[in-house]
Batch of 2 targets.
Target 1
Amino acid sequence: MLSIKNLYVSVEGQEILKGINLEVKPGEIHAIMGPNGSGKSTLANVLAGREEYEVTAGEVIYQGEDLLGKSPEDRAKEGIFLSFQYPVEIPGVPMVNFLKTSVNEHRKHRGEKELTAGEFLKLMREKMDLVDLHPQLTNRSVNEGFSGGEKKKNEIFQMALLEPKLAILDETDSGLDIDALKTVAHGVNALKSPETSTIVVTHYQRLLDYIVPDFVHILYNGKIVKTAGKELALELEEKGYDWIKKDN
Amino acid sequence: MSVLTEKADVSLQYVSLFNESKSKLNGGSSDILNSRRNKAFQDFVKQGIPTRRNENYKYTNLQPAFAFDYQVSFQKPQTEIAGEEIFRCDVPQLDTHHAVLLNGWFGNQNQSKDLPAGIIFESLETAAVKYADLIKNLYGSLADTAADPLVALNTAFAKDGYFLYVPKTVYLEKPLQIISLLKSENGAFSTQRNLVVVDQGAKAQMILCNHTLNLNRYLSNSVTEVFVGENAHFEYFNVQNQHNNSTLLNNVFVKQESNSVVSVHTVSLHGGLIRNNLKVTLNGENGEANLFGLAFPDKKQHTDNFIQVEHAKPHCQSNQLFKYVLNDNSTGAFSGKIHVARDAQKTNAFQRNNNLLLTDTASMQTKPQLIIDADDVKCSHGATVGQIDELALFYLRSRGIEEKMARLMMMNAFAHEVVQEIKVEALRERIDELIEKRLNGDVARCHECNYNCECS
């Protein structure tokens, strides 16, 4: 599915990722943990194609093809989905227009017929139930006036509409209360299949109680310094990150 | 003529024109128009064609536009101005009374017989004779020739335009659409003078469309004076859609009495140089003025909105919202002045100007001004000049939306805040569509026409 080899990334001249290697196979859930500033969000954004992030070395192969040369929209249409840490408010762009355009761009890419307004609304209603998002929110502009929790649910709602092959959840748990966290995790799990993969970027172990990872990687200072099973997350919860910092 | 020698030569051209054309100017025109010419001309001579040294025209250079040798006619064209043949407005579902003006002249075939009883809609040239009592005290009372050289020039050369009178408590149910066309073999300098009276408790909506019908050079200088009585409602929509070789100078003066509501919407879709001078005077308590503007200059186009709101009486409210999307090497200017007079307590006056620069070579000058002589008022102003939010663009793209479409969605969103204030639904939808075409890089032709507009 995804193969990251020796990836170096700089932002505004500062090197953030310093040789990342990561293999993600279909059906796997990978958690990426690490202290603030270790490069977790950079990794998530660079996979989605954010242009401010400059790849200085290394390669990323997604479904057998070079990923880094592709535009963000092509990556999305080929199945990569980034759930934003801070979903962007876009005043004046109605949610429904945005979502319908997005879904239809995906459908066109797959050679499917575009959905009519009626068909789309039906699909939207189905998927909203999954994350318990209030239907009235779709009458607003994109993320405008949404609470922190609603924004995160809205990300998972979009994920449900777009059915990605590789979902990257960038601190989807931050700012969520326990009920919202369960709802979001439930949504993510319901969308999971043996063909799809998930990368969960998080500070804390608590999300991993609900989205159980196959692998946990610790990212520190731009490198993956430790990889193990889900028990690593519990160990981190207990000991904090200091022991990682000391060893590296 | 020592004053003149200090002015650029370009003004002299218009001085000669006036001196040579006096008999034509006065011939066939009412004394109401003729009696103002000499004073207006003197005021023009004093001021000249504005240069950038004139603070009010600092960001708009009119010299090149005036320097051209235009064709000028001070006589109504003999041929019928057959609007329907040369022009068909293509706004579906927009049910209006409509009228055509050509090069500033009121079309003979325009008829007011379908209008509700009592409404007068006429050529100004004719109306100034037929309805002299209605017009004589109003004409020129708002458009001060000493304050602006374009107004002075217009008043000196004014022959025709339209006159609309909506009597007390009469409602004009359908909007009145006025299509102002420019067409001439050699380009033209056109002077149009309009007068609108919406009397006490009356209601009217006007849609004014400015078009050029070929690619010749045009300079049009119009003055419109609008009087809105107590408890009256007046909405004025101006859609400006000309070509890159045209100069549109549009001077609108509104005076509104107590409890009246006025909205002025100016959508500058396309045009080489557009200058909108708009002055609104709130002359009675509880008046409300809403002024909206949108501009989409590209290539080397220039759009300037020069707004003055005069709060003369207490308890009035004014809102200004002007937005520009500037592409290529285009330039824009906005000046919004709010003056609250000493007695105008409890005034609410708001102003906002937001601008989106699509390139590094486009530029915008914005100048909000508040002059407050009262002490119990709420006033605010704000101006921003920015670029498309890259993070928002990435968000849209990360959901599979092509970059071009994502940009278009964001530009539309930016403009829509102003468009949504257009209350005539069919017009609002059409303007949304035109803006989308315009932003998409297509020429936003809003009319079916029998020429091939290259709008180069």
Note: The two ends of chain B are 41 Å apart (CA to CA).
Target 2
Amino acid sequence: MKALKWGLALTGIILIFVAAGTEKTSKLTSNFTKGNPGIASMDKLAFGPEGILLIGDTKNAAIYAINTMDFKEKSEAEEVDLEAFDQKIASSLGTTADQIQINDMAVNPISKSIYFSINIIDGTPVLLRLKGQEFEHISLQDVSYDKIELENAVGINAEDKRGRPLRVWAISDLKYHKGKVLVSGLSNKEFGSTFRSISFPFDDKQDYASLEIWHAAHGQYETHAPIKTFDIIELDKTDYLMASYTCTPLVLFPLDDLKTGVHAKGRTVAELGAGNSPLDMISYEKEGKKYFLMSNSNRPVMRIKYDEIADFKETLTEPVEEFAATEGVAYDNLPFPYVLQMDILDDKNVIYLQRTAEGDLVLRSRTTKWM
Amino acid sequence: MDVIGGLNNFKKIRFTLVFFYVLFLLSCGSKDAIQNVDLQYQDSSAIGVSFETSDVNDLKFFLKGETKTSILGEIKSSGHKHHFTPVIPFRAAQTYEIRQGGRRLYSFKVKDLKNPDRPELITIYPTKDTVPENLLKMYLIFSTPMQEVGNASDFISVFNETEQREVELFLNLEKDLWDKDHTRLTLWLDPGRIKTGLIPNKLMGLPLRQGHSYTITVLGNWKSARGIPLPKNYIKKIVAGKRDNQMPDILNWELSDPAANSKEALKISFGESMDAILARESLQIHYKGEIPVEGNYTLGEYENTIVFTPKDSWNEGVYDISSDSKIEDLAGNNMNHLFDTNNEEIKKPTSSETHYKRSFTVF
């Protein structure tokens, strides 16, 4: 009798755990299928909830959601300081650094694991995860996944109004925000620069708006300039898309305005200098205040205070005549040039990939206290 | 005696110990030995290696010369037989090592590619040497898909012979503009410097300066997608001529006169060099206004002409030649507007037509 009681109790506990486990994966991954998603390129990575990795595939003009099953909670990440990082990746693939390219980096906010999408010289995409000083290969041969094809994505041979092939810009950045997958890039529609908001789990509904900005460095309105990188900022209880463009305007669009068929005009709040292209943007909190970091092709990492953006009520509409001069929201230059990738590692640290003055590629974590 | 006898005994014991030690080493060696190594190839790529050994614990594969970071992959075992599949195929002509506990057990070299498709730079468009000072773009056409890592700017240098200095002629993009096959690269001269009134144009002027000569060098260390470098440096010399401020006009094109009931080619002379890629994609010929005429389009010398060879013989009657308005000359001027729409001095009426047509009669 006693044994039976124990048996029933044990069965109950197991059932509770199984139910909890099923509950955890059923909400967002119930539509997922198992198999090889057939990803052709991994241009952009971003993490959604529950360890779901979002992959932007420009060649297939699609977004993939992969259940990495990597949801073991970790509050603090380990310190990272790896030199010759590209050589290390190349060695782990049995090749040399000139045969690979690191496309993107993303941190799983639950496990704090760092993921990398790599291109091999022949275009083969590879997904790796850092484990201590080594890498793990994340095989996508047989995974649980879902995908959505981007509506009106730039055709593989489409060209812009100047005849310039556009496909390369199909996906320029990717983020997850409040149940939506946000994607910037270009579409085949009349106005080239689009921003998509896709419900997740994918339900085949995607809002896409075309965007127009005042480009102070070019002295004219532009619709063809694609967003290079973006983040979301909340001002007066409204979410805004904060988009950064090549050459380097910073523009705000109310997120609610970005709907299908809408041609949205942005409010340019900063001109961060011509002759530069933004590479990555992240936000973090320090001592109760929020900051944004933006890495650049030809400028060091810029730190912008949330309060500065909130207090800037104007719109820049005058050309910046002096080459590489800046206007609008103030920013600080941090002593980190040539930062190629950044992400939030945990509550207190960021992780970044940087090309040093000596030409070495390093992956380092750093406390936000000193950022 | 006892002492001597004791020494002899000691020698015997020592000899026996050494014998067993050597035997032990030999047995260890044979236990660790990697045997029957066989590389598997698929489409000339070494996709895996099978081998036999008694113990695969801590057995790792390394690129020769690398001792810390092992190669990612999967070992599948069946008894003493094992198979290692690397995440990406082993590289051609590269030597790899199998190590266990830091000790090298075996090394093998991957076969070089048989008859590798050595890449060649087939054409640089425009093919002519004298180009307008407001030249908008150039194309590099390769014989095989090129590498999908790095940036084109790493392999192209431009020297202004007139000023005797290296210059940045092409727009440096984070991701280069390749076609789907990765055989055609589009290089843009900075549109911001070509369009009048834009800040880059005001500050730096046109990328090309009229009367100046330039040497464009495509470096021989640019590799194909299979890692095979170009056979040599390629040199293209150009001279910047006068500005092109004219839009292409289909009515100004000269047409040859193919005979009815023949497959004679129709030669279309543009009167100027055109964008090679757009010229090939923009034209269409119709019979009686609606029946498409099938055939091949071949660009002529310096992209001044295009030759249409019909699949079937010409009929007697009226044909239309239709051009997509996006067809461009070397300065990016299309049939609807000049590329530099901002220049007030040369401003011309713009249009939004998608196609332009003209008729010709075959007798």
Note: Chain B has three domains: 33-109, 121-241, 250-362.
